[in-house]
Each structure stands twice: as C-alpha cells, then as structure tokens.
Write a structure and sequence with these properties.
The complex is a heterodimer of chains A (about 450) and B (about 160).
Chain A (H helix, E strand, L loop, with lengths): L5 E2 L16 E12 L8 E9 L2 E6 L10 E4 L3 E4 L6 H5 L3 E8 L21 E9 L5 H14 L1 H10 L12 H9 L7 H25 L1 H27 L7 H16 L5 H5 L4 H13 L1 H6 L3 E3 H12 L6 H10 L7 E5 L5 E5 L4 H12 L2 H6 L3 H8 L3 H13 L3 E6 L2 E6 L18 H11 L4
Antiparallel strand pairs in A: 1-5, 2-3, 2-8, 3-4, 4-5, 6-7, 7-8, 9-11, 10-11, 12-13
Helix pairs in contact in A: 3-4, 5-6, 9-12, 15-16
Chain B lengths: L2 E2 L2 E2 L16 H22 L3 E3 L8 E2 L4 E2 L2 H14 L2 E3 L6 E4 L4 H14 L9 H6 L7 H10 L14
Helix pairs in contact in B: 1-2
Classes of the chains: A alpha+beta (about 450), B alpha+beta (about 160).
C-alpha cells in the first residue's frame, strides 16, 4: 500500500519536490519495489527510482495505475544495504538492490520527519525491500551511489545546524562529520569578549581546515564545492566593498590585509576582480623585478641574449620552491616595459622569444657577422649557425636567429644542400643582370672570386 | 671562366646560394632575373626548345660546387619565363616547358617576314617543305620547322596571319 511509505511531494509536471539542500544523485527507470517478508505489502511497479542525498524516491510512470502515488524512503530509515551476490540465478534475473528498512510499530515505514526525535529508530522491526531494475540503467553504479549517500548522512547535518544552541560551536561548524567532533569533545564554554574572539578564531581555523581538506581530494572538493563558492563570494564582496568605499586614512591596516587577501587569492589561482583593472597584481610586479635582477648573470654568461625557455628553467631552479608557471613568467616579462629595467623581451620572426639586454644592438651583431662571413674560408664555404655561435659567443639557437635576421636585412644569403644550412655573404646586389659577365674591381664580388679561385675552383 | 660545352658561364654560377631559392624578396627577385636570362641565353645558343623539369638539364646543376636546383626552384624560374611570354608550359602538370627565346609575337613576325621575302604568300606549304627548302637553310625557319617535325604543338599557330 502506498500508506506504507512516506509521501513524496511531486510538482504538477511530475518532478519531485526536494527538501532544503537535498540533491539528486542517480536515477533508474522501470523499477519495481517489492518486499520479501511482508506479503501485505503492495508492491510498487515500474516506476522511476531517484536517489537523492536524503531519500530514495519512487515516482510512478505515467503508464502505471493511478492509485500509486510517489513514495519516499528516507535514507535515515535504511538500516542495512545488501551487496549484490552474483550467482547463476542472478544472471537470468533482472538486477536487484536489496536493503533493510526500519518499520515503526504501526506498520509503516519509519520516518524521522514525523517527529520521532533524534538518533536511530525506536522501531524494533525491520523488513527487507527489493528494488528490481527492469530497465537498462546502471544498477551497480546506482548501488555504489546509494552506499555513498547513505554513509554521508546528509540529513544529520541539517539536524545539527537546526538545533543551533548547546555549546555554541554549532554555528561555526561547516561539515557534517566535524559537527559531531565539536559537540562531543566538550569544548570550552564561550563567555564575553574572549568567547566571541575565540569563536571567530575557531571559525577561521575551521575554514582553513576545510580549505585544506577540499584541496586535498577532488571528491571531497566536489562535495565542499558549495561552501567554497559561498566563501569565494564572501571574499569577493569584501574586496569589492573595500575598494569602492574610499574611507579615511585610518584604513591602512585594512589595506594591508586586503592586499594580503588578494595575494592569497592569487596564490590559489582566483583572480580578484579588483586586480584585473589595475596595471598588474603586486605579485607580478614583484616577480618582474626579481626576475630582472636574477637574469642579469645568465645574460652575461650567454653573451647578451638568452632563450626565454632557458631563463624560465634557470629561474625556477633558483627559486627551489614556489615555482612559477610559464604564464607568470610571460606576464612578468611583459611588465618590464613599464619599469625601468635593463632587460627586455624580444620576439623573433620565427616565433622564438628571448631576453636580451636593452643595450644590445643588432647593428653590432651584424657587423661581427659580416666580419666573420667575409673571411676567405667563409667566402668559399659559407658559415653555419654553429660557426657563428662560436665566434659570437652565444648559443647556436640564438646564433641562427641572428643569421636569419641578417638574411632578412639583405646581409646574407642562405644555401641549403645535403651539407646542411649555411649562409654566405650576399652577392646579388652587386650583380648587374644586363651584363652578367662584368665583375667590378672593387666590391665584394671581386673578393669572392679571388677567394674562390685560390682554392682551385674556376 | 667556366664553360658548359661551348657556353660561357657567368661567375656567379659557382655561388652556392644561387642554387637555393631565396626567401628574402630582393634577393629572390634578383635571383629569378639572373636565372631567366641564363636559361634563355643557354637555350638560344644551344638551340634547345624544350626543358623537361624532371630530366637532367646541364644548366640546372653545378658539379663543381655540388649543387642542384630543386624542383620547386626550377618551376619558379620557368614560371617566371612563362609569365613573361618567353616560355609556355606544354602540359598541365608543368613537367615540360617550351622555351621561346623569341616571344610568340616575334616568331609570328619571323614567319611573316620569311613568307614575304620568299614570295610564298599565296601558296600552301607543308612543314616539311619549309624545312628542306633552300630558302630556309641556315635561317631560323629551319630551326622552327625542325621543332615542328618533332611533333611539338606550337601555340603560335593561332597567331598566323598567312596560310
């Protein structure tokens, strides 16, 4: 009979009305609920079984008889959930979920909401119910979720926060599990100002602890997500209200702690809306200056130019802990434009990004390259990036960038062959297409011919 | 001075970058220009009409410096000739190129003048007759006709003003 179960409220479109802070977890379709023991029990046929954090709801499908209405089994009333035993018989049957529920003396399902007070039931009897899953749903998954929800005891959280008074630490607790801890350890009674301060302190401690718990385990985070959202909202509100109200100068301390809060938020990856508008968070500014100082030595060693990736590795290694992300690095480097530091970030045409001294001049490098490439040996067989690297005293990758830049300026020409990628001095401007056999007496062509012919090439 | 057969090669033929397609604009333009002239000169003096891109062409490699023009480079230079009117692709796949060291209009002029000079205006001649005729000997008409007899379709037929 429907009277056995608690009534579940349903909206006009057939959706169940959930209790406060009740969340749906899983559902299965085409489920019958039967009882093995009690034959007076009128089985519920072919409905939708919904698992929430607080109850098991059974909703009749539209095709079933109109006499059955939505039923609810509070998870609180479940005393035991049987695990599925895989047997030969179970292979031919539809999957089943068996659980034991407490029955109150008047023959109905035990329902704590109907005013039977706290803790486990006064009902002495219990019967076993079976949910037969005739549809295609994931029965094992549902069973797992049922276990979880039943163990989480979400309804108890409501009860403890509902009760409120007592040792006064109830309002501060944020987790269902820790709610039990605080009330049972016989904490100090709160009196006067000391009590209020103590309460605040405990609240912050528990927030801190809950943050730590949350970030340790993603599953735990998901369950605490609601609290986190509320916390973040509170923080945001505080920051926004703090910045918008331009109060008197007595707020220095506030400002200090506000910046601390911003830093703290930044360190957990939350970008405060206040800092987005400003020229860059304090964190990035400090980092930028620190980076400029640090990078000076490696720059000198590397001959004035260092690959951004190399700089990133060196910097992080030097820091040891509190490593920075590549994004932080990029931001810090781009902030250099705003300060007066002797280093700058430069991006080559090929996409390679380097850090170089502001005093570095391309012209000087080109002059050195030209000197290198007009030597007789280089006139004959050109130079490779490694040759340039040795002469210029910089890394081969940097040397290649310089050579490519020199090429685009018309100083060099490339020569690609099975021997590799080489560069020669650019002779094309000197060649006159109207008289290709003419070689000017002055000019690089002449030098080149001389150099080439001495090696026996004609 | 290096030679390719009887042909005198310019000094920059031994300049390795000459054989690599240059990416920088100024260098590329100059390079293309030099190659165009070189190809036309060579074909004119060696009486070469057709260049096959995938075949060995002596001008396209230099064994002294061990460099060869890549297929991409060859196509680039020949396409430049085509767009100037000094060459024509013989197939859609750009595998064979007809070199016209005179442009098509110029060839048409030559035919026209030949016909006029020799009074052939109102007669019909076969290609073979032109080739073996006394008038043609030693002139460019002989060359032209030889090319014809090699069964190369000559696009200038559409420019013919005489029969």
């Amino acid at each position: 009979m429907a009277d056995f179960f608690s009534k579940a409220e349903v909206t006009s479109s057939g959706r169940p009305v959930l209790l406060r802070s009740e969340v749906e977890c899983h559902l299965l379709s085409s489920v019958d609920i039967e009882s093995e023991d009690n034959h007076h029990f009128y089985p519920l046929k072919s409905g939708l079984l919904i698992l929430t954090t607080h109850r098991l709801l059974w909703l009749p499908s539209s095709s079933s008889s109109s006499t059955s209405s939505a039923a609810a089994i509070p998870l609180h009333a479940i005393s035991h959930i049987f695990s599925t035993k895989k047997s030969l018989k179970s292979m031919f049957h539809s999957p089943r979920i068996r659980f034991q529920v407490l029955v109150s003396p008047d023959g109905r399902l035990f329902d704590p909401a109907s005013g039977s007070g706290s803790s486990s039931g006064s009902g002495s009897k219990s019967i076993v119910l079976t949910a037969v899953v005739r549809g295609k749903g994931d029965c094992d998954g549902f069973l797992g979720k049922l276990w979880e929800s039943w163990r989480a005891r979400a309804w108890e959280c409501n009860e403890t926060s509902g009760s409120g008074s007592g040792s006064g630490s109830g309002t501060g607790t944020s987790t269902a599990t820790s709610g039990g801890l605080y009330s049972s350890d016989g904490s100090v009674r709160m009196v006067g100002v000391a009590g209020i301060l103590r309460k605040e302190q405990e609240m912050w401690e528990s927030t801190d602890k809950s943050l730590q718990d949350a970030f340790q385990d993603l599953n735990a985070l998901m369950s605490k997500a609601k609290e986190m959202v509320m916390l973040a909202e509170k923080m945001r509100q505080k920051l926004l209200s703090g910045s918008s109200s331009q109060t008197s100068g007595a707020n220095d301390e506030d400002m200090g702690s506000k910046e601390e809060m911003q830093d703290w938020l930044l360190s957990v990856g939350i970008i405060s809306p206040v800092t987005k508008e400003s020229a860059g968070a304090l964190y990035h500014q400090q980092l930028s200056r620190q980076l400029a100082d640090f990078v000076r030595t490696p720059l000198q060693r590397a001959g004035g130019m260092i690959n951004l990736i190399d700089a990133y590795c060196l910097f992080n290694r030097a820091r040891g802990t509190e490593l920075i992300s590549p994004d932080d690095m990029l931001q810090a480097c781009s902030l250099w434009e705003k300060f007066d530091v002797p280093v700058m970030l430069r991006k080559f045409d090929s996409g390679v990004m380097v850090i170089q001294n502001k005093s570095h001049s391309d012209e000087e490098v080109f002059a050195r390259i030209k000197g290198l490439v007009t030597k007789p040996e280089a006139l004959r067989s050109g130079i490779s990036p490694s040759d340039a690297a040795i002469t210029l005293g910089i890394a081969p990758a940097m040397a290649k960038e310089h050579l490519l830049t020199a090429e685009s300026k018309g100083l060099l020409c490339r020569d690609i062959s099975p021997d590799g990628f080489r560069f020669y001095i650019n002779l094309f401007p000197e060649i006159d297409p109207r008289d290709v056999y003419l070689v000017k007496d002055y000019g690089i062509c002449n030098t080149w011919i001389k150099a080439v012919s001495t090696s026996g090439l004609k | 001075m290096q030679k390719l057969g009887e042909f005198k090669l310019p000094h920059f033929f031994n300049y390795p970058p000459y054989f690599t397609l240059q990416p920088v604009r100024e260098a590329r333009e100059k390079q293309v220009q030099l190659w165009k002239e070189l190809i036309l000169d060579y074909c004119r003096t060696q009486k070469i009409f057709v260049i096959g891109l995938e075949e060995e062409f002596p001008l396209f490699s230099n064994s002294v410096i061990e460099r060869t023009l890549s297929h991409e480079a060859r196509e680039a230079f020949l396409s430049a000739l085509v767009s100037e009117g000094h060459a024509e692709w013989l197939d859609k796949g750009h595998r064979k190129c007809l070199i016209l060291w005179h442009r098509i209009q110029d060839w048409a002029e030559i035919i026209l003048n030949f016909v006029k000079d020799n009074g052939f205006e109102h007669s019909v001649m076969t290609v073979e007759e032109i080739r073996s005729g006394i008038e043609s000997r030693g002139t460019e008409m002989e060359l032209l006709s030889t090319a014809c007899s090699l069964e190369i379709k000559l696009p200038w037929k559409r420019k013919e003003k005489c029969t």
